[in-house]
Amino acid sequence: MKKVYLCNISGSYQIVMPYSCGLLHASCTTDTQIMQEYDFQDYIFHVPRGVDKIADIVDQPSVLGLSLLSWNVNRSLKLARLVKEKHPNCLVVVGGPEVPDEALHFLSNNPFVDIAVHKEGEETFKKILIENLNGEPDWSKVGGLSVIKDGVLSSYAKKSPFLNPITTPSPYLLGLFEHCIEYVDSMGLPRLNIWETNRGCPFSCTFCDWGSFVNQKVRPVDEARLLLEIEYIGERFDEIHIADANFGILSRDLKIAKNLRRVMLEKKKLKSVHITYTKNLNSHAIEVAELLETLKPSRAGFTFGIQSFTEEVLVNIKRQNIPHKNIDSLKERLESKGIPVNFEMILGLPGETSQTFLNGINRALEIGLTDLRVYQVALYPNSEMNNPETISKFELKTERVQIVDGGIDDENEYVKNVFSTKDLPRDEIIRLKKLVEMIDVIHYGRWTYYMSEYFTRSTGRRIIDFYNELYFFFINKKDSVNHKMITGWYIDT
Known about the structure:
Number of helices: 19
Radius of gyration: 24 Å
Number of strands: 17
Strand content: 15-25%
Strand order of the largest sheet: 2-1-3-4-5-6-7
Largest sheet: 7 strands, mixed
Shape: globular
Structural class: alpha/beta
Distance between the termini: 47 Å
């Protein structure tokens, strides 16, 4: 039988079940010919001692399939290269959000990759395995992929759009992760898994590739399957991360949340459910939060993904937030249940100036939150913001930032963060980044919380004015701890 190796390497700080490997494998179980001809090996999802050690144990592979994500793309491609060098007849197939839709540059730079799969991969991968059984496979019959032959790129569209419900068998109920569970247990680590109840995103935020990657129609997973999976997960896992782009967007999500809460209370194994809530909040999402956030040991809370308070910026990024007048009432409702409330904002968005960004931070401080999380905008391969027109229009300039320490230079992982725009120079983006980190430590850590309140009451000025002036005070006070904190922040160039 032909050996198939599937790989989805976790980030450095936790080991998560390789959900994409399970989905690809589960999809293939529905085809008798594939199951007769191919032998699926244990999934590759953890690299504790370097990629070369993993490559050494890949034995006579016929097919190597790798899921490329921002936290594993360099290690995954290195593994693919090493395997191809040892086993030149192995078919190397890559997919995932780090595979660009325009694949010529990607495939040219990575000649050891035979096939680049675009968007969802279950059906495409299954067809690849079937076509691979032919002496001279014709990849044009498959669709949804790109290949290079004799220096020429050929890309083949999928035969049908993603409009149908998700019918892939459950990798959990098939027991496909049992060897992964045993491995994690042997490491003495918690069991973490990925789980999805629907796929698709109806929003078009330009900084995100989620909507474009899975297309915009929200397609549900069969509810009967989900209810069975909840029982399985509740007995076997410590934490789950719901991979839906907008959990709470469907009315049935409330039923799912009630069943999750039930198994958490009954079985007492599952401790935390991590959720990305729907962008335009509705009553379902708030009720879901009331059911599940109150059970988390850490009480991490509910996060409003505001991204920006500036209307021009929201237009630029095709984002529509919930009305600001509703935020206060939702915050009060959540906090009455003991659920902390956080905001998420993004620094460096097109059209954001220093003043508008500071106005937004001030608004967040005035609302009174448990935490404010500010991220620099990153450019991902298939996000609309990463297209040449947007980059040119807003003069976006990026620098790479390390997100995973691989222990070896070519196994480190990076993202491309925006460090200057037409409206925000590089020095000011760095200063604002340091400022919000200072606010996170000394305001939300309650060191200066009451001082800032006194400042606003006694002077009539804004909270952000207090922290802006405090920032410059600490910049000049070189023997202070805060000076060391805000001047110690750095980037990898």
